[in-house]
Amino acid sequence: MAGPEVEKPTGEEDRPTIVETVDEEELYGPSEELLENINAALAAGDIPVVESLIEPLHPADVADLIEHLEPEQRKLFLDITRHALEAETISHLDEALREEVVDQMAPAELAEVVTELDTDDAVDLLEDLDADTQQQVLDSLPAEDRAYLEQGLTFPEDSAGRLMQRELVAISDQWNVGETVDYLRNAEDLPDDFYDLYIVDADKKPVGSVPLSRAMRSKRDIKLTDVMDEELRLVPVDTDQEAVAYLFRQYGLVSAPVVDGDGRLIGVITVDDVVRVIDEEAEEDLLNIVGVSDTDFHAPAYKTAFLRVRWLVVTLVNTLIASFVISRFEGTIGHYPALAVLMPITAAMGGNAGVQVITVTVRALATRDITPNSNVMRLISKELAVGLMNAVVFAIILGAVGGYWFGHIGLGFVLGGAMIFNMVWAGFAGTVIPLVMDRIGLDPATGAGPFLTTTTDCLGFFAFLGLATLFLT
Amino acid sequence: MAGPEVEKPTGEEDRPTIVETVDEEELYGPSEELLENINAALAAGDIPVVESLIEPLHPADVADLIEHLEPEQRKLFLDITRHALEAETISHLDEALREEVVDQMAPAELAEVVTELDTDDAVDLLEDLDADTQQQVLDSLPAEDRAYLEQGLTFPEDSAGRLMQRELVAISDQWNVGETVDYLRNAEDLPDDFYDLYIVDADKKPVGSVPLSRAMRSKRDIKLTDVMDEELRLVPVDTDQEAVAYLFRQYGLVSAPVVDGDGRLIGVITVDDVVRVIDEEAEEDLLNIVGVSDTDFHAPAYKTAFLRVRWLVVTLVNTLIASFVISRFEGTIGHYPALAVLMPITAAMGGNAGVQVITVTVRALATRDITPNSNVMRLISKELAVGLMNAVVFAIILGAVGGYWFGHIGLGFVLGGAMIFNMVWAGFAGTVIPLVMDRIGLDPATGAGPFLTTTTDCLGFFAFLGLATLFLT
């Protein structure tokens, strides 16, 4: 068929009309009513009802529904719908569940799904298959698709090459608006949605871009090179996805051109994929702080337990070192057990103050508020000042409390002194540890916290018990 | 001027051509070279050089540059450039710095800046002004702009009304593609960029949308209602921005229609603003965990110190409660000081295991992996199982270490027993505390952590010292 009529993308025209106002209360996840109806239909084995219930749903919502079903119901549901699921639904599923679904599908079915997806989503799906199935699926695809996907699999994970789709709109720098519109109306194999026209020279090298809205508002005889933006940032195919996310955020992009080593346009990254990346990176940052993996929530209990062990081992080593420090003062404590009562305070205050500093520093590194050109001395002095100010306040409060509680003014001074020492250290170490880790190529988000609390625990106990040994015994 | 020629947006045509390949190494923030050159020019008071250095930069990069200058240089820089800064640069500045710049501008200058911005950014800027200046700026604007901005200021912060821009493209449901294109070519006051055409009925109520790419590919005589998507989610103007972000993420949107109480189209939210929201919310989630505000990094030391006090007070109360628990066992400790050496271990392991559970639960609540319809019992049992598995492993290891260290097998059993008790409690409380807080309308992201560690500290000390008192003395 030459010159296709442009229609709504396949699969959408059979979904009924829904112009509805968003209700915040019912926005997130499947409604209770839907879950109940689905469960009832599954229990009754009523396949047509199940199908009619999911028919009006967006693929992303079907994926959500599957994630919210109980394991037994989910199995039933998938047995019924597996071969009727839209490709996009499968691609929206949480990774663990997607594997479950895909493992049950024949290579021919998978090939069909892969064909319907954009190249970036298709590669995501392919890379989870075992080598044999992957090859079978690839073999059953048309040569061009196969070449794109095989190349896609060679790009490093988390690179621009994995985020981009190969379907793109490249317009010759010789064309005017009229020629472009005629091309767009007649071309097959264009992406479903696109937002910018990339203008390329004879070598397929991009020379500028025209937002669709501007192209649409321009008269037919205007040359595209006359209205194009000449400020165009080309993304090399091996760029890390974090850098891609930065570009989109910084410059408010909706799409960006990806080029190969010779500077030729080979793909386009669109903002919907970048939104996913930003979300994933934020989730990772958050979970890494406490040593939890991003698959933690959906993994079975034994796997979750195993994934969390590493961080608990670090905690264990940390406290054993702290215990060793305390054991050096067993004599003092035996002589004066009130010290055991008060000693956790200094460690806890230093640890928590330090974790605040670490979090701010790690976040500033991640958002590039701190760059290699930043004035590091100013950062450190600020945190030393902050640490000192709060240390003095809390030392006075706690010194008074401790002195009054045990009726011993010397004890109050020891507690206050140790507190000042430890909180100032927390301000210093909380800045310096992540900065040094970042400089020598370690990830401060995962290691800095436990490392810091080991130091604040040990120093907290050492300062408090040491001062007590010197002045109170 | 009727029927404007469509050109690149104002301010862009005088920036020189930059088609350049992104270099990851030099991507983030201003380069060292640029900073050095700017500082040299500032020191020499060479205004033309400063201006020529910033001329080729994107407004977002100029804002970054300003943020990276030392305070004294920044003052010099702003004195020179304040009146020449692009509106977009000012709107990109970090909030604290933006206030600094805006405070120095006359109402007439501000009015000019406001006129150049989209309504959402203009409202952001206006709301930071004192009431007097705000009124003066508003008074000097054309009536329609003023009405939009005054209404914008009445919408709650963090609502769809604040995110939307009033400039939008509404197309009659009676038009065909040709009529639409003619309208777009001739209309003034359209937004700079738009991605979807919203089709409205005679009452201005949206009935569907057409992505620009599809409109562009359709022949002139085709009616828009024949190619429009009828699946359209209308965002009420008072919707929370978090819900808006969810919509964009879930359905891969690039723009969304905002409606008033009568369902009439009054604005459009575009994805670039949503990317900013997603980023801000992620940052808040991360910083809230440790009781740090999102202005922490750029605030002066005394302010930062003050902002962090609240969380340190919570820590203080927490440890004082724990100290009180320990004080009940002063006699036992005096009798057997080895207990003081080992007692931090149980508390630390329980606390850290619990913080892992809390983080996963809070995140799952935020991403709506847990909804009101989720099976809460299954979550709790999973965490109890995870807690028990890791508790047994670590109880055996630590029991052995403790028993061997002090040559007392009973001490090993007491340590192991207390550990199991506290880590299972951590699994239970780490799930239940955030779930209950969420149910009764408290924010689990800010309060759940400190609350949990208070319980694991107290129970950890109590279980260990209590068991020791029962079995060892």
The CATH class of the largest domain in chain A is identified as Mainly Alpha
Report the oligomer: homodimer
CATH superfamily of the largest domain in chain A: SLC41 divalent cation transporters, integral membrane domain
Please give the largest β-sheet of chain A: 3 strands, mixed
Largest interface: A-B, 151 and 151 residues
Terminal CA distance of chain A reads 96 Å
Topology, number of strands of chain A:
7
User: Which ranges of chain A are low-confidence, i.e. pLDDT below 50, for 5 or more consecutive residues?
Assistant: 10-14
Q: Average pLDDT value of chain A?
A: 86
Radius of gyration of chain A: 30 Å
Overall outline of chain A: globular
- Based on secondary structure, the structural category of chain A is mainly alpha
Helical fraction of chain A: 55-70%
Strand content of chain A: 5-15%
Give the strand order, joined by hyphens, for the main sheet of chain A: 2-3-4
Task: Name some characteristics of this structure.
473 residues; CBS-domain; globular; 3 domains; cell membrane (chains A, B); 3-stranded mixed β-sheet; mainly alpha; 7% strand; Magnesium transporter MgtE (chains A, B); homodimer; MgtE N-terminal fold; 7 strands
What does it look like?
Two copies of one chain form a homodimer. With 473 residues, chain A is mainly alpha-helical. Chain A has three domains: 26-157, MgtE N-terminal domain-like (MgtE N-terminal fold), CATH 1.25.60.10; 170-288, CBS-domain (Roll); 301-472, Orthogonal Bundle (Tetracycline Repressor, domain 2), CATH 1.10.357. Chain A has 22 helices and seven strands. A three-stranded mixed beta sheet of chain A has the order 2-3-4. A three-stranded mixed beta sheet of chain A has the order 5-6-7. In chain A, helix 7 (107-116) packs across helix 9 (131-139) and helix 19 runs parallel beside helix 21. The longest helix of chain A has 31 residues, at 409-439. The radius of gyration of chain A is 30 Å and the shape is globular. In chain A, 44% of the residues are buried. Strand 5 (231-236) of chain A pairs parallel with strand 1 (18-21) of chain B, so a sheet runs across the interface.
